[in-house]
């Protein structure tokens, strides 16, 4: 099929070239009068047309032998024959008058042409004058009817002009005397050099109209080409320079054609002088050759030499500039001989045309799919070049055919560019189809991947939850933190998977809307609270300026909530500091809602792209982008599905403003919604009255405490008394102790004063939302210390994401199912108990390690005393007995002991050491006895022992040990200070990093690291002593230590 198409194209091209060749040959031969017969040729100054058939012949060329009066300008008279007294000779017309002049064979001078035309009958006739160089005046039957320039024997009075025009006149006695006065002082060829056309007035005017139409058609065509390809160049974002050069070339060609033949340029500039017209003609000719050269070079850039093109371009550009400047400054066309200018312009044009032909020929030889078009261009350009050569060599008038031929070449080039554009379009369309297929495959892949990821993600979440609940045994605290992190990350990844599934459902048209009239300000306040608590470390102020008196909007409440969440979260994510303002106003029956931030802004090039799925503009933001780039895409699709639109206005460095529209609720929609509500209310009147009575019965005095047999206390927070009553009953049926309050602040107060094992918190409450309560709790207690379950009515994904980011452990959707509530509570309490057991086991391990070490040192001290002082030995044994009693009590209890008991051990130990070292050891106590808290067993004694044995005793002078226990704001500060030998800096670093095997220091340090809110600090200087400071929270319940 391709071969058949190729053969057809070749046949078509062959026929076109044959037709062009025949037409060109005809016009050339016609210009040389090959087809003219001698029937109507002038002889001896007379042209007999008595047998002229004007209906068939139309117009006749006034060629032949004219009477010529050299060096004379004879003005004829209608009443007498003024030519009898002048000598004349015959001259062939059209031809140059050089060899017919009497005085010299130069083309410069004057002369008068005379021809008598015998017509078959008297009528109105016309003569169309073509090229007469270089000024002329025409008389018919002694009457002056037209002129071009001013012919004169005086060069000062002479003014050249070679315009073509038509004269009309009546015959007398079937005869017309045609006299033409000619002068030439400029051109190398003078006289009548082109045939004059004669005929009836209507015929001549019709012929002139046809030629004008052809030139107007050519000018309009080139202007149209210029406009089309300049517009195309701009549409292609100035990518293809050859389109610009083709546009400029067409424009220059249009201007050039308007300066020749019928000279249409005078329609715009009627006062234009012939010299200026010649200057514009020369400049436009030079420019259209320049731009045509550049067009061919850039269009066939693989077929050209850049150096040659640059050189020719420089010559042509300088030539155009020189002609323009000199014609303005020194009247170039008057002062400089026109043949010289013509020679220069023709020379540069000929050289450029030769190289253009070479480039076209090289392009054709490549045999590409564009070769058919290039062949027409090459052929038309070659024939056009031949015509130009004929015009220059023989001075014949074939300008219109040559212009038409050049237009054919230009049209071929335009078709070639169109062909190339069509190929590019086809390629783009093919690639677009491939991209659409890839996009569909991508969507399928994402959907399948999301589904496949869902199963292992739920497995990860369930396994991590089981580990936290202690199913596989107790975890150490660091292990628990890692598992909690895994659980949190898996939940976040599950959220991304849900986003992918959501965007896939949108693309498949599966997103459903449940629209109803809703109040905008309520939704705005809820979402403002969500966004406010999301980034706790950012200094961003959220401002909600939505008025209270706005009318209702008609949309899906949950979808609108998601749009708000996405926009506000996006603003917070990219705003380091400043404000985020939410506003709304009514414009043209639409609610316009804006979220404006003071972030870094978005560049204009990216403002349309940010709503594209998966698109992220990291360079336009100052913070690293997070997520998959789905938020704004989902937002746009939701808004558009609801009948609105969304856009962004932004300025770099000043911020961005996202605005979307929502339809207002119409009166009909409001009435329908009210009718539904009224219908439901009418059906449930009795039920509502019963519920009101139940509500009155369910009123409870808050806070309410209900004791249960299980050793766990659960705090319930809800602003609805009925909901509180239901939850209290459920928890009581599960045998838990319950404390119920009605506000977030009351919950925080209870947590400060009561032992609470788990918190059940309603999400939406007045004054202080569940978000704010959870955020405040997490500043003091982590996920293990106090598990939190959030209750939500909507179960919206955005609510859950924010809840987990703020530190909730789990969530339940209202209405609460008893069995589900029981399972969630048991899993979280089991996780908490597992964490406490793990910490206690680790503390017991440290305690077991320190006991033999302490006993060994103490017994050594008593043995040493027994040899020197039996009384002191008995005192030491009493202190040791005190220690053993305490030790036996510790083994029966947990690894956390009251601070008072730990101090007794320290004092017993120091009493033994004082008996041993006497004056070398001094003890100072400063203890606030009102402090009551718990502390890991054997924490202070090893540190005191370390200060005595490694600090004071090693000093020759001995020293003093000070033990201070005091309150400092909300903490307890324990200070162990000695003025012993001190610890070198390198040794201090080893001790703080746990790289030292000194049990008296490392074990207390590790035990304290397991205690919530505990901090350990050491300051030491060699030769001056050591100070150890412990900061702890004052906690009265040993279970609150973890």
Mean pLDDT: 77
Q: Helical segment tally? A: 27
Low-confidence stretches: 1-8, 34-38, 619-625, 683-698, 890-894
| SSE class | alpha+beta
**Sheet having the most strands:** 7 strands, mixed
Which characteristics define this entry?
single chain, 1042 residues, alpha+beta, Jelly Rolls, Heat Shock Protein 90, 5 domains, seven-stranded mixed beta sheet, six-stranded mixed beta sheet, 27 helices, 33 strands, 18% strand, elongated, disordered N terminus
Explain this structure to me?
With 1042 residues, the protein is α+β, with helices and mostly antiparallel strands. The chain has five domains: 40-195, Galactose-binding domain-like (Jelly Rolls, Sandwich); 211-366, no CATH class; 514-672, Histidine kinase-like ATPase, C-terminal domain (Heat Shock Protein 90, 2-Layer Sandwich), CATH 3.30.565.10; 687-816, Rossmann fold, CATH 3.40.50.2300; 846-1041, 2-Layer Sandwich (Heat Shock Protein 90), CATH 3.30.565.10. Helices cover 51% and strands 18% of the residues. Strands 1, 3, 4, 5, 8, 9 and 11 form a seven-stranded mixed β-sheet that branches. A six-stranded mixed β-sheet has the order 21-23-22-24-25-26, with helices on both faces. It has a five-stranded mixed β-sheet with strand order 15-17-18-20-19. Helix 6 runs parallel beside helix 9 and helix 12 runs parallel beside helix 15. The longest helix is centred in the middle third of the chain and has 70 residues, at 399-468. It is elongated, with a radius of gyration of 54 Å. Residues 1-8, 34-38, 619-625, 683-698 and 890-894 have low confidence and may be disordered. Keywords: ATP-binding, Cell membrane, Kinase, Membrane, Nucleotide-binding, Phosphoprotein, Transferase, Transmembrane, Transmembrane helix, Two-component regulatory system.
